[in-house]
């Protein structure tokens, strides 16, 4: 058993009883014992307390009026309005205005109990604990603090419940903006591992997350969210990500990769993405690109009027602006002008072993718009299919009226390159064993009642096929 005693130097010294503010002359030194057992030394009391001998060799002590103490040969200090020492159980109660300064932690509370044999501190009411190594701050109604003591435990441990709030900073980074973590209960081990459970929320100016439970391990460089996890980027264009399980890959205190594992769903200002697995890459606190793949369902990316799906997808979105999507393995793309019946009939599609889609950057927001404005949406301007490529497109000629039906072009080839402007196909270029068919619309049918020279009504035709190589 660790030998831990309360030194009653002040109460045993005659001068101390006549001068309540006298101070015991016990030298103080840094806590160099990697958690040396605390031998509590009373330095000063506001007025003389009393001692009660429970049994031979076991004396309880009570004092008030402002008490100051420290751990012998240590930099740890304790202060409170009153104290009560129970020798039989080795417990020191501190009541009112509790201030504790340990080698790794500063703690303030209304009441606290220190169990010297276990090197455990229980604090209650208005608890504020500050880590010296990281600057992290915990605020809540209660806290249990286990000191690192040789032979008992090698790492500091902290437990808190009843929804504490933590301003979390990483090791070696006591400056800068912290993550604010709130949960029903929290456990911390050392300065780099944390577990939280029960309606967990994480917030920073650029980032927010929520889940039923959270684990953060800076030694392994990752954090895990489970139980309806959700991650949100708070940039001007922003993003969201949900999944069965979300993992965050960390570099120091910054999130670099966000992984949705199982039923992943991501969304941004320009696109939506679903897949079994989604990896999103973040730099300078902004989304830069995303990868998606899976077995139970094919990855699918949807922009305002365009859809791409394949065995796997890669989206480039530097600073959260979509510029390119690459689809690999049985790739398929569709596009339409809008959701109207006419647009559904004129839906364009393309297939190939791979498809690459290029978006033009969105127009900038008006000069007078707020700085947080998203601006316009990115515009699809080019689609390229390679490997057994096929495409069905609708194209209007320059001289066609707005109400005229478009021509229909079906093409096959090694490579099909489609250029778009706005919602309209401007050009289809087919190379490598190219062939296809184009159907052009006929002129409008004659007015009702018009007949041929034989006096029979003319049946209107809608299109005229023209087949040939493109």
Please tag this protein with its features.
mainly beta, 34-stranded mixed beta sheet, 3 helices, 3% helix, rod-shaped
Characterization of the model:
The chain has a 34-stranded mixed β-sheet that branches. It has three helices and 34 strands. β21 and β22 form a beta hairpin. The chain is an all-beta fold and 470 residues long. The model is unreliable at 1-34, 458-464 and 466-470 (pLDDT under 50). Helix content is 3%, strand content 57%. Among the domains are: 1-127, lipopolysaccharide transport protein A fold; 332-362 and 379-470, no CATH class.
Architecture of the domain at 1-127, CATH level 2? Sandwich
Per CATH, what is the topology of the domain at 1-127?
lipopolysaccharide transport protein A fold
Query: How would a crystallographer describe the biggest sheet?
Result: 34 strands, mixed
Structural class: mainly beta
Shape label: rod-shaped
What is the alpha-carbon Rg in Å?
Answer: 36 Å
Distance between the termini: 90 Å
- Estimate percent helicity: under 10%
Uncertain residue segments: 1-34, 458-464, 466-470
Residue-averaged pLDDT: 81
Classify the oligomer. single chain
**How much of the sequence is in beta strands?**
over 45%
């Amino acid at each position: 058993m660790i030998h831990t005693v309360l030194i009653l130097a002040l109460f045993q010294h005659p001068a101390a009883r006549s001068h309540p503010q006298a101070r015991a002359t016990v030298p103080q030194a840094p806590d160099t014992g990697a958690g040396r057992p605390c031998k509590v030394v009373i330095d000063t009391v506001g007025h003389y307390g009393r001692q009660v001998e429970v049994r031979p060799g076991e004396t309880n002590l009570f004092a008030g009026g402002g008490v100051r103490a420290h751990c012998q040969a240590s930099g740890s200090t304790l202060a409170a309005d009153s104290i009560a020492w129970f020798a039989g159980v080795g417990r020191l109660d501190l009541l009112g205005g509790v201030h504790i300064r340990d080698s790794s932690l500063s703690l303030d509370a209304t009441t606290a109990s220190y169990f010297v044999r276990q090197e455990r501190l229980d604090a209650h009411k208005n608890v504020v604990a500050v880590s010296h190594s990281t600057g992290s701050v915990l605020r809540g109604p209660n806290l249990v603090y286990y000191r690192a003591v040789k032979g008992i435990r090698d790492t500091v441990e902290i437990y808190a419940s009843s929804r504490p709030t933590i301003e979390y900073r990483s090791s070696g980074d006591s400056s800068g903006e912290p993550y604010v973590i709130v949960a029903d209960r929290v456990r911390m081990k050392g300065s780099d591992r944390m577990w939280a459970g029960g309606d967990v929320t994480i917030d920073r100016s650029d980032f927010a997350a929520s889940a039923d439970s959270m684990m953060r391990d800076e030694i392994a460089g990752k954090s895990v969210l489970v139980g309806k996890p959700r991650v949100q980027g708070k940039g001007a264009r922003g993003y969201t990500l949900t999944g069965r399980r979300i993992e965050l890959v960390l570099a120091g205190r910054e999130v670099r990769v966000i992984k949705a594992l199982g039923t992943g769903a991501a969304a941004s200002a320009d696109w939506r993405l679903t897949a079994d697995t989604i990896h999103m890459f973040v730099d300078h606190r902004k989304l830069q690109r995303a990868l998606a793949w899976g077995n139970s369902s094919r990855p699918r990316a949807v922009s305002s009027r365009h859809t791409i799906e394949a065995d796997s997808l890669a989206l480039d979105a530097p600073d959260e602006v979509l510029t390119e999507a690459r689809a690999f393995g049985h790739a398929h793309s569709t596009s339409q002008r809008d959701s109207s019946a006419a647009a559904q009939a004129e839906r364009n599609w393309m297939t190939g072993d791979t498809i690459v889609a290029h978006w033009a950057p969105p127009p900038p927001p008006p000069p007078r718009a707020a700085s947080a404005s998203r601006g316009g949406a990115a515009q699809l301007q080019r689609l390229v299919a390679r490997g057994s490529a096929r495409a069905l497109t609708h194209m209007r000629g320059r001289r066609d009226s707005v109400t005229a039906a478009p021509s229909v072009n079906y093409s096959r080839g090694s490579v099909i390159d489609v250029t778009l402007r706005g919602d309209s196909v401007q050009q289809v270029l087919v190379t490598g064993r190219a062939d296809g068919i184009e159907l052009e619309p006929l002129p409008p049918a004659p007015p009702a009642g018009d007949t041929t020279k034989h006096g029979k009504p003319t049946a209107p035709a809608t299109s005229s096929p023209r087949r040939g190589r493109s």
